Amino acid sequence: MKTLVLSFLAIGFALQISAQDAPNPEEAQNVKMPELVLVFTKTTGYRHASIEKGMKTLRELGRKNGFVALQTDSGTDFNPQNLGNYRLVVFLSTTEEVLDDAQQKAFEGYIKNGGSYLGIHAAADTEYDWPWYGKLVGGYFESHPEQQEAKIDVVDTSHPSTTHLKDVWMHFDEWYNFKQLNPDVSVLMRLDETSYKGGKNGTNHPIAWYHEYDGGRAFYTGLGHTDAAYDDPDFRQHLLGAIEWCLKRK
Predict the structure, then answer these.
(1) Interval 84-133: pLDDT, tens
(2) Confidence band (pLDDT; 50, 70, 90) for 198?
(3) Which fold has domain 36-246?
(4) CB count in 10 Å sphere of residue 221
(5) Which of 29, 39, 139, 235 sits 20 to 30 Å CA-CA off 127?
(6) Would you say 118 and 90 are in contact if contact means Cβ atoms under 8 Å apart?
(7) Which residue ranges does the record assign to the ThuA-like domain (predicted)?
(8) What single string gives the DSSP state of each residue in 22-71?
(9) Largest Cα–Cα distance in the chain?
């Protein structure tokens, strides 16, 4: 992974330079390197078919917005030296137990040193025996009904991930019911359980939230089960806003 990181940095720098018209040395010194985002896609339980589409989407967003998304399925990349290369770690529909004790400790250290975390969909179906992670992600998966359209109440449109949305967003996806919800998160969107079948969290059913946690930033969205979700401009902008907040751009 170290060689891969260095290669992407070199390519990113070259692309930044080539995009300018013959910059002089002073201008070249001011060229910003793309920020690196590690996308973790390891699964030891159910593996979502949409992981591939989600990864493609993150790469596309990165090319247009100054970051590089690098994918790994290996927990061995969770060590202090490697994690130090990244401004953000994304758990893209990971499932069940994905990190050993040493890797968990390294990730905790990364967050405590100011790193950021973004969990997408099944990131909440991950590491049930790691209480620190449960607080980080903000809640654990409990169950889900069949995929269907539901009404999302956007309760906070001031966050970069929701500024583009209206107060109500109708969206088709797989809707998680949650357990062990962290009461200290700031909720951005809630599901209206009267708009679909199978909800179990009642009138307070958060589906996207953020918080500052143990020295770093953490964001979770429950959307993203289907391939089609990643073609939805509103969902893509939701992800981009979450990433930009995690990267501390906003």
Answers:
(1) 999 999 999 999 999 999 999 999 999 999 999 999 999 999 999 999 99
(2) very high
(3) Rossmann fold (3.40.50)
(4) 22
(5) 235
(6) yes
(7) 37-246
(8) S--HHHHHTPPPPEEEEEE--BSS---TTHHHHHHHHHHHHHHHTEEEEE
(9) 61
